[in-house]
Amino acid sequence: MSKILTQDSYIDVQFEQKQPFQIFAKSWTPDQLKTDIPIIMFHDSLGSVQLWRDFPEKLAQITGAKVFAYDRLGFGQSSAHPERLAYDFVPYETTHGFKAILDHFQIQDFIAIGHSVGGGIATCCAQQYPERCKALITISAHAIVEALTLVGIREAKAMFQLEGQLDRLKKYHGEKAQWVLDSWTETWLSEEFQDWNLEPILKQVHCPLLVIHGDQDEYGSVEQPKRFIENVAGSSQLHIIQGGHHFPHIEQPDLVLYFMNNFLSDLNSLKILA
Predict the structure, then answer these.
(1) What is this structure's pTM?
(2) Is position 202 within any domain?
(3) Which of 158, 160, 254, 266 is most buried by its number of CB atoms within 10 A?
(4) Considering the chain, what is the average pLDDT of its residues?
């Protein structure tokens, strides 16, 4: 079994002549690397590096790949966001925060893995960097805003209004917690966001795609992964996890790791990751 080496990094960035910020990133490196192509992970709407828990370490262990995860601006240990989250934040991230990660660590080819809205960001990265993104994996990702998505978010918003609930977010986001919550609920519930649709982007994604989704996901029906499979331009695989909810990588990590490792091993055998 490989020993996993970890490293924390704070990356200085400046977007569009605004004040300088810092982006927090963490890496997990096996002492016996099996591939030169790293995996980059994108968190969900309330997520952070810390909230991936030990999944990145297990992923590095089973795949033999170096794994990166980072906190988007406004989240986790990254700087506070100076503004309200823009409605085009998904594609915006690919040319700003994510580009800062690529540039800082001098990453060329990569594998993108995203959970929930992080899956949408990972998809945009695959579209934005078609020659460099060698594979895409989404977990509980959304292609559209559907009624179930809105019901789930409204219920979560009400829950976070109960006494002490916001403290759960403060544990990971500090004083940015209210901004993090509002960036999720107020953006997704807004009238301007109801037509959000990832399908035009998916039609431009040519790398191999693995889609993982729980059939009991509180925020997206099985129609979501079907949209990914039906619209992506390249090859694809779909795994629906029976009884799985919105965090299958936390609920059933061994199963999700098994799906991911098999998918990447097959690509390696076909020299796609060579």
Answers:
(1) 0.96
(2) yes
(3) 160
(4) 95
Any domain includes 68:
yes
**pLDDT score, position 270:** 58
Q: What confidence tier does 49 reach under pLDDT thresholds 50, 70, 90?
A: very high
Q: Which residue, 120, 150, 117, 142, is CA-closest to 224?
A: 142
What is the Rg, in whole angstroms, of the alpha carbon atoms belonging to the chain?
A: 18
Residue 166 placed within a domain = no
> Hey, what are 207's tokens?
């790398």
Q: What pLDDT shows up at residue 106?
A: 97
Say how many domains are in the chain: 1
pLDDT digits (tens, 9 = 90+) for 196-255: 999 999 999 999 999 999 999 999 999 999 999 999 999 999 999 999 999 999 999 999
